[in-house]
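BACKBONE GEOMETRY TOKENS:
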Amino acid sequence: MSLFVISMPIGNPDDITLRAIETLKKVDFLICEEYKIGRKLLKRLDINKELYHLNEHNEKDEGEHILQLLLQGKDAAVFSDCGTPLFADPGTYLVNRCHQSGIRVIPVPGASSLMAALSVSGIDIKQFYYAGFLPRKTEERQKEIRKLKTYHCPVIIFDTPYRLKALLYSLKEEIPPDQRIILFLSLTQPDEKIIHGSVSQVFKQLNQNPPKKEFVLILQPKDYKKSKKRVKKHKRVT
């Protein structure tokens, strides 16, 4: 009895791994976040299996039900709409219950928008901070940005496509206009685009017609070079 945690493509369907396909085919049943999207993904792979959906509204109750199926000796695989499951997605409750119950939890890694963005950012990554999804309300979001701008490493920000304009506005209001950001749009897809520039430049470029596309944003602090020197010095001392 095992629970496999399977990464799915973040845009380009060809980015799924051979191991992921083989695992989806061999387990007894599957778990997704959104039933309609899950069925569509499986249809493309010509896989027809019993499918359960686990979301923020039913995570505990459905998690317990799935746990009982696993305890009967069955194997299952959980996959997200895109990218790696449990990364800003439901499923943590089920994974913890599996650990508590002696059920193996096995990662099947693959595409990641976070790592894809970092790999082509051009930033010398020694360390970074994942800020995830910022608060929806403007005042709370800007309060969080005021904290993030003090960090001495690149800050990775996610959000939904329709909040890109609001996020850029909050950044423009809270950080120096010449502070640089990198915006990654539709990674791995035909219309993929990477925009480098100051926050004021990017805001001006996209403000009138902000694209409704999946994105990752990296906020690069002005003192990043200085902070790297401090980190290296600290390492020599220790």
In short: The chain has a mean pLDDT of 89.
